[in-house]
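[SOLVED] Need 3D model of a three-part complex

Original post:
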Amino acid sequence: VLERLRSRTPRVHCITNAVAQNFTANILLAAGATPSMTISPEEIGAFVASADALLVNLGTFDDERRKAVKIAVEAATRGDVPWVLDPVLIDRAPPRAAFAKELVALKPAAVRLNQAEFAALGGALKNTVVALSGEADRVSDNARTATISNGHALMAKVTAMGCAASALTAACLAVERDPWRAAVSALLMLNIAGEQAAGAGKGPGSFAVAIIDELHRLDRTAILERAKVTS
Amino acid sequence: VLERLRSRTPRVHCITNAVAQNFTANILLAAGATPSMTISPEEIGAFVASADALLVNLGTFDDERRKAVKIAVEAATRGDVPWVLDPVLIDRAPPRAAFAKELVALKPAAVRLNQAEFAALGGALKNTVVALSGEADRVSDNARTATISNGHALMAKVTAMGCAASALTAACLAVERDPWRAAVSALLMLNIAGEQAAGAGKGPGSFAVAIIDELHRLDRTAILERAKVTS
Amino acid sequence: VLERLRSRTPRVHCITNAVAQNFTANILLAAGATPSMTISPEEIGAFVASADALLVNLGTFDDERRKAVKIAVEAATRGDVPWVLDPVLIDRAPPRAAFAKELVALKPAAVRLNQAEFAALGGALKNTVVALSGEADRVSDNARTATISNGHALMAKVTAMGCAASALTAACLAVERDPWRAAVSALLMLNIAGEQAAGAGKGPGSFAVAIIDELHRLDRTAILERAKVTS
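Solution:
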């Protein structure tokens, strides 16, 4: 999947929160994808229609972004552009949780979230590929489950790391139409880059920089050698 | 205070400017706190009510944020959540200065600002803890003044460093209810981390990364050894 | 030009996209300029009138920023503040291209853009200084053309690098009123800093940090030794 990312350089349109935009863009570039991020209602339909995948991250939840999300998801559905939902902090805010449930009904190819967010969505996720972040990450659809035991504790000390994982899942969906395989690939890449970035061991500031370097350098050999996936 | 931050991991809700959001979030994480940053009017009341401290930074001054500030400060006052005001650039913009004066009247636990911003607020700060950034930082309330001579010149060459200092002051308020002690602790931590980050001496880009690493690594011993505080 | 930047520390007001704000601010600080970034309609007129240069970047294209742009350009024209237009991604979105054409008619001192954006503006750029990014950068007005062959491939793997080049062009305009010379100087500085940053060779994450360090450290000698400019 990584090699396909690098040879095809898919464009991933991201509706994401203000904290995450810069880091997400650099993670996508490091993996081989091209980010675009407009949320203007006049433009977003055309941007999504010509994109290879879409990320919908609810971390900044304002009127403008909600309108953008509706237009974007409609364009994605019409154009058969796969999309990922990241329902950030819906466990903290009921209006956001309600909006996330509406979005799940519109059939994202995958939903990436943490345990608390998963609990807030309850049974709504039955027919979706779910990528659940935790001490080990777990990716499941109705038939298959993979547990990914790679990663590093410093990943939780860098803001927007989860958002970047969701964006990378969208990028993988652009080149791998089985959403379960795409999500497993994305989390594996980021977690292995995280393990390698932790080597320098200086702290979360330099770790956030090094994980971009390592993702950029990552190749098939490193993934095969280091992957700890059980299914 | 640092040890309490690390053991209690308080949540600090930040209304801050777009330039500062990512750096502020990573500084808070490095110190042991957890950031949240929504400004949606439907949500922010609940986010602040359940937070341990609030930061109100006026660096991005739009309608949306002004509404958010009002709701947030009301929720903080009602819920006894301590809050910090950072009146960014009020010396440049009269409407912003007027808004800052209204906010000072609502009794922030502390106000962090630079000399020009201080001058623009004039006498309005009489009954508030004031953390004044300058060549040496000065923290005063009606009875006590501390002068902190730690820090490094490169701190002025990294955008959002002052905003991060204000966010850290909010984090310290969450675990230390004496706002004067909280502000002294916050500035001391950041300034000592700054001194240690300057060691590598490569320039402002790597300094901004290293100060996050050093803040994450900072402990009681380093603070006691390096603190230059007079009162 | 670099020495004048450092001695005069001009203030550059930037209307730029959310992805680019932090990186742009740190690039300007590293070069010796001071950034300001408000887009509030009540304030932006006064901020621009007292600034030394203005950047108008269309990367985030929302109602708020469009209003801000109109007020800002009017204030710049009235106050004789030189301004730079960066028409990000106008090749992808017709409403943005139409807005960019309106802005070109208002006479920016320079326009910085890539090949696809240039093509979308067609003949509209006849009487403007154009800084065209590509494998080699090219700066032309009606009479002169310079080709700058410095730079490094990693510059294309860091988000907002082009936006930062435009901001730096605005900074140079603040201290060099010949816009062609200002644009050549800006691209030369950033490209040489990029070459020197590539030395460490770790990847795009650390490259984005190192280019800020190198720009901060850059001096006349390094520029004279490394410049590859033909005209």
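Edit: The mean pLDDT of chain A is 94.
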